[in-house]
Queue: 4 jobs
Job 1
Amino acid sequence: MRNRLDRSCHGLDFGFSNDPAAVLKQYFDKSSNKLYVFDEIYQRGLTDKKLAQLTNQMIGFEEVICDSSEPKSIKHLNNNNLNARGAKKGPGSIETRYRWYSGIDIVLDSKCVNIKRELQTHQWKKDKDGNSLKVPEDKNNHAIDASMYGLSDYWNLEQQSWYTQDYV
């Protein structure tokens, strides 16, 4: 099946003490709009060295797209035989990536229990009356964020057209 998929789109969200580091081994089939998630790392307390080691064991030298807010950690990954780069983010990118992500089909391997749990429990922020807002909560979303970083090349392609249609 892998030869049918567009390309790997592995993602990494950094964490340490309060939040887990999350890495997803995933492939996207653009023709069917399906994301296949095959494996995950989801752990608190990982040093950069241990995170690099575990990520390398899982994906080898295939590219992993990371949260770009930690350039020092990305540099460490690259210095430890990983092909890592930061996701492109900008104004409105959180809403854009969640909107794009909600429109794809996601197929999870049974061992990917953390992203499954997050997809089942993640919520949108609510106003004072309990109505859902168009802004995702920033909790219970570490594997989701890792997944979206891995897909950033896809949702970034559509970001400009969404701004034009919905935000102007």
Note: Residues 2-167 form a domain with the Nucleotidyltransferase; domain 5 fold (CATH 3.30.420.280).
Job 2
Amino acid sequence: MKIRLIPLFLLLLLISCNSGNQQEDERNLDTKELENTLVYANKQAVRAEDEQINDFLERYNWKMEETGTGLRYAIYKHGNGPKAEPGKVAVLRYSVRLITGDEIYNSEKDGLKEFLIGMGGVESGLEEGILLLRVGDKAKFIIPSHLGFGLLGDQDKTPPKSTLIYDLELVALH
């Protein structure tokens, strides 16, 4: 009797192990499918925002350079001061608008913006753009949401998924 139970026990063990693997495979498949769906949705959102920015540029006839990350910039007045570099404190006079034209921040009301270059604390698009400037430069930056405040906004005046338009002057470096 014991001999007959051992093969039956082994068979049950084998079946339960295989069904566990099947469930794990299904979970992995569901996770991969969800990941693919989210990646696709993100690419579509980036593409739609890019089209919106291109439409804006065309409508206002702005000629801007584009970096590999998607930051658009135009330096419309060249200064003759030192070039911005990581480790320096940048001091900016600025105006920030949404792509709709609504102004959300302005240095006349909010004070000059100061930040340590290369240490974060500001939008990554602003961080990237400042490194293109020297003291005295005036520039416009169009910062897509993935280089700005992303999906959440800034929890103040910048709504979620907002494209930001900076008009700024690099006033000083310390």
Note: The longest strand covers residues 89-98.
Job 3
Amino acid sequence: MRKLKNNELNRLDVAAFKVAEKTPLIVVLDNIRSLNNIGSVFRTSDAFAIEKIYLCGITAVPPNKEIHKTALGATESVEWEYVEDTLTLIDKLKADGIVTAAIEQAENSVKLQDFSVQSSEKYAIVMGNEVKGVQQEVINTCDYCIEIPQFGTKHSLNISVTTGVVLWDLCKQFRF
């Protein structure tokens, strides 16, 4: 096997990405404090062609040197918007017919491998703060709470890793 060169990957440029068909997924960042995590979520969202990222609460917004370090330009390709209050945003998304899911460890959560998307629906996943997770009021308002099963000693995964795992699982349900 030969490793492919960048020019052999057939990636879209930013202009083509903006008009390309998107995966019907939205990412909501609920009070994310790490600029590197924010940038990583942008880059992952570009990779899976998600529709939009909402940055809420204390979550920093582009342009920002530290976000750019991990986003590597994805802040230019992925549509994003700042909304101060996550709960208000979730209420609006639900009113617009978007299915909402907090990604959190909670009672009666649905395990990621058991969650099935409906191709006729659009979904918003809510990723929580690195220490406190998704706000309880937001969990209470969401349609679902999805949990990634874990088998080791740590209580959680990094938010950027969690986003990648969840987006991949949901994206493959839509695209494959």
Note: The chain has a mean pLDDT of 97.
Job 4
Amino acid sequence: MEAPSSANASPDALTSAFVDAESILSFAIALGLGLLIGLQRERTTDRIGGIRTFPLIALLGALTAKLSQNPNMGWLLLVGLLAVIALILLGNLERLRGESDQRGITTEVSALLVFLLGAFLVLGDKTIAVMVGGTIAVLLQFKPGMHKFAKKLSERDLRSVMQFAVLSLIILPILPNRTFGPYDVLNPFAIWLLVVLIVGIGLGGYAAYKLVGGRAGILLSGLIGGLISSTATTVTYARQAHDQQKGLRPAALVILIASTSMFIRMFVEIGVVAPRKLPDFLPPLLLLFGVSLIICALTYFRIPQRTDSMPEPGNPAELKPALIFGALYAVVLVAIAAAKEYFGNRGIYVVALISGFTDVDAITLSSANLAAQGAMEVNAAWRAMVIASLANLTFKAGIAGALGGPALLRSVLKLFAVPFAAGIAVLWLWP
């Protein structure tokens, strides 16, 4: 008698096969995550669990979750969790009696998480479970570096982190997410979300400074300084060049690198605000970025002394600068909308020119946002960004001359000449 073909298989049989395959996959992932975390714990001095215990805990979680799907055994998952907690307590009897000086409960918490991960693989989303399991393993592995980094944080650094939490986790959620005001372009939630983005980029640069320390070298000094604030970096190095009366070329190069890293900020901002339009923005902006990179590289290899002591940057998460940027961004939004209505693209370019003298982020975010909404052509948007960046280069050259003296101004102008000319050429010749 022939076996029934797959075409004639009953729906119940197909469903059963699918469920079995899902179960096998869940248990296999549970075993893999348990092995991964257990392998990391095996190398520690904490012997509560290791490469055998953690996979068993993960499988226990998956098994109890699978059995709890039976209507008559829904209580089993809770019993399994309580059993794991009891085993952890038994494994910590010495500590509970005060006979052990071992500190921390990392392994115990990890064991509970592994049990819950095993259960979640059966009852929840496998992708999320894998992500959480991988994150646990990474956090456990990099414990020494994370502790070292935390100890290096000063009170000022911790205040920066807390201020960023205020900006992103307290202020942002309570703002209304709707448009109002002139031309109906002001959305408090959207404006503050972009404030959080800019502060976050600056905070990332500040974290990079804390990791590499003050002696970052010319290249990292310019890159990190540009991520935090290219204008502030220009001010700092112009003052240093004036006070020391030496190192004019290194100072000018740091200013150029900081100005070049401005394009990195622009790419991130466009990618967040208008991800679908990013490929349309990239060609002209990447060309200018590449020209600036070439000038940076040529100058860098011609300077014999490449070491540099990077001064500690200011706190990028201060509330006052965030408020100023938010207000500036709102003004630019309204100005662009008004200029477009009354003067067309030429009006937008004038706004970009004026706002670019002090800040490129505002015009980048506003024009990219309008392009994403279809309220502005992409060609007009990236041209506004280029005009703003050229205005910003002019502004930085003025700062260098005013604070660093004529000699620094000449050095900066020599480095800025090619990128500036390239920007003019792109505006003039790009189709």
Note: The chain has two domains: 6-148, 153-429.
